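To make the argument concrete, we let one protein speak, a sequence paired with a row of structure tokens, as a model reads it:
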Amino acid sequence: MEGLQRCFVLHTRPYSETSLILDVFSEDAGRLTLLSKGARRKRSNLKGALQPFTPLFMKWSGRGTMPVLTHAEPISIGLPMRSYILYSALYVNELVARVLETNTPYPVLFLDYLNVLRELAQADNPEPALRRFELALLYHLGYGIDFLHCAGSGLPVDDTMTYNYREQRGFIASMKVGHLTFSGEQLKAIDARRFETPEQLRAAKRFTRIALKPYLGSKPLKSRELFIPRGRSTGK
């Protein structure tokens, strides 16, 4: 492939004695797997660069399931993910790696990914940034849900009414209250990506977990199994 592309490394794993397999998110090529030959050698100039959360220019060659990395250089220093924020950033990487098809371009989602990393690097509370990225991810996957109208009647949602979520249909006005129930006010907040209260954040998190489940399957997310410091929320 000719030309440099803006990329992020999502995850690395050892390959042979000196090489690495890289899960990469590229602005133009989408998610792909690359082989970085010799990257684990002590004198490799790539050893410190191929880290998550570091914006890179990358180039690779070859076809098939695992092209070979031929060049990588940092665009800037890595985005700092301090203490408990790191777990949320790892969760974002795992979502991208698990959900996106390989070799499918997502140039706008790449910018959403860059934005969520920037937000997390500056955040005290990671949850608003995570919810916005999850909703953006669902949108780019083709998950189209109308949060502003009742799927049964077509009427605009009312702040004070409750609506039950129906997969592949949307939100239908109902008096029954359960895990799939959202108020009209919560649905408007989700649609606007505006999370100003704890209740709005909890509703958005509940919805994105429901909506992402079919894409993630039954295999648990590794990032959720990591240690969560007491008194802090990772937002996942």
Q: What stands out?
A: The helical segments are 85-99, 107-122, 127-140, 184-192, 198-216. The beta strands are 5-15, 19-26, 30-36, 56-61, 68-74, 162-166, 170-173, 181-183. DSSP finds five helices and eight strands in the chain.
